[in-house]
Structure to design on (107 residues):
């Protein structure tokens, strides 16, 4: 391996992570409310008697699958928001500890 890893600089910007947490929470709320609004309940003759066995089942299946995908997106956004918040908290604690050690305030 080369010495490249020794000169790498990683910087965690708390405000960026906080904005990401907020964005993910907003996305979760949007996905959840959209999933609640998706409806596939149609009468058997919604597209006419000829389309009864073709379009109604297809639209109903599409609505159901759309709700499932939106529910999955809601769950993913919630988990990502929680994990990002946890990372932000961990980095804040680490930074505070490091400052305390370097300034002699920590034991």
């Amino acid at each position: 391996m080369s010495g490249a890893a020794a000169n790498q600089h990683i910087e965690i910007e708390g405000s960026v992570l906080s904005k990401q947490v907020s964005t993910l929470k907003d996305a979760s709320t949007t996905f959840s409310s959209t999933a609640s609004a998706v409806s596939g309940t149609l009468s058997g003759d919604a597209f006419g008697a000829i389309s009864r066995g073709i379009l109604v089942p297809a639209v109903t299946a599409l609505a159901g699958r759309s709700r499932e995908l939106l529910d999955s997106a809601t769950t993913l956004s919630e988990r990502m928001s929680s994990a990002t918040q946890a990372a932000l908290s961990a980095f804040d604690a680490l930074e505070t500890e490091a400052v305390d050690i370097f300034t002699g305030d920590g034991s």
Q: What stands out?
A: The mean pLDDT is 86. The chain has two helices and no strands.
